[in-house]
Amino acid sequence: MIYFLSDLHLGAKYFPNPRQKERAVVQFLDSIAADAEEVYLLGDILDYWYEYKNVVPRGYIRFFAALARLTDAGVPVYWLTGNHDVWLFDYLQTELGITVYHNHLQKEIKGVQFLLSHGDDVGTQPLLYRFTRWCFHNRVCQWLYAGLHPRLTYGIAHAWSTSNRTKRKEAEVNAEIEVCYQHLLQFSQSYAKVHPEVQHFVMGHLHLAKHQAIDTQGRTITILGDWINQNTYATFDGNQITLHTHHS
User: Fold this and answer.
1) Coil, strand, or helix at residue 185?
2) 129, 136, 151, 159: which one has the fewest Cβ atoms less than 10 Å from its Cβ?
3) What pTM, to 2 d.p., does this model score?
């Protein structure tokens, strides 16, 4: 079985009990170890991560240990970075054997072509967001950011994330999600016309759990939801994609 999940936001300061959330994810990963053929993490797995050359942030030990158990058992784990965990460099690759991608990926899985993305690097995105994403991925900006003391950057990053998650009105957020979903749907339909070999599009980012057909040829788009409130994930058995909810 192939597993897809995204938007865990582990370590987020707005979780009432961050350790409990991490343990729920670990429980899920341990529960799939017996039948998992591949695991795909499609971004925003960590709420914030900046990996310095010789130093990595504290925390996530149980989660990283669960990933290590999978890779040590021969299960490939692929991590496509999102907008919260963009600064993954080589630590997880060298220490845990995880393959990290920083952009969307077209890949054959069990003989079927997929387009995988966190969801923030495809389709129509606001100009300010595109500029912010460019800064996050720019090597010079990363070098300058690394020169700031972690006490400063850590506080700013978590304050920004918490404000974005808790201060905005629900109606405003829902309206934005719907607009973004339509953009991803349009992107998938357009991409399929140029790349008709792709059958399934799997993305995160929107914190929306949704699966639907995009044409009459059986192509689908799947948005993976999140692990803030929904604890959702998707599986692919070689024939169809299914959305599930994990009950810890």
Assistant:
1) helix
2) 151
3) 0.90
